[in-house]
Amino acid sequence: MFKLDGIEKMSEKQKLNYLLLMVEGQLSSEKDTLANLSNVSALINILIDKLNWAGFYLIKDNELVLGPFQGLPACNRIKLSSGVCGNAVTTRKIQLVPNVHEFPGHIACDNASNSELVIPIIKDNIVYGVLDLDSPEIDRFTQLEAEYMEKLVEKLNKYIDWNEVTRI
Predict the structure, then answer these.
(1) Residue 2: inside a domain, yes or no?
(2) CATH number at residue 144
(3) Exposed e or buried b per residue across 42-74, where buried means at least 16 C-beta atoms within 10 angstroms of its C-beta
(4) Less packed terminus of the chain by CB within 10 Å, N or C?
(5) Residue 148, H or E segment
(6) Which 3 state secondary structure label does DSSP give 137?
(7) What's the pLDDT tens digit per position in 54-104?
């Protein structure tokens, strides 16, 4: 059982550290990949303020396919060459986009989204997908959050066999 008492009093850094602690606990106690990704997206959604979407896109048959998430229904498939998520895959770099409406080729799965943070999931030099966070606020995401989401992906890589949920 998760206890989230007192999170409203935590600083941004305290919440991010708590998130990593909760993720480690989840991943170390459960072996099912889909259960873990589902709970990780829920933890992100609870502990990161001002989000309207948090979840995963996983590479299957050379495109990004919707994985576990929290938020409104989203695009089912994204071409690897398209949008912020596709750009994170092809460049293998974190995408911290202050205003998605200024991003060339942005895909609007939810018209309420105004900023985005996307972390490529790379393990053993293979890109398996992305962790995607959206916010209705312009310039919502911080460099600190980008660093912590990268640490979160490192924790995922420690426990998850991505071949179970992807087809590369």
Answers:
(1) no
(2) 3.30.450.40
(3) bbbbbbbeebbbbbbbbbbeebbbbbbbbbeeb
(4) N
(5) helix 143-159
(6) coil
(7) 999 999 999 999 999 999 999 999 999 899 999 999 999 999 999 999 988
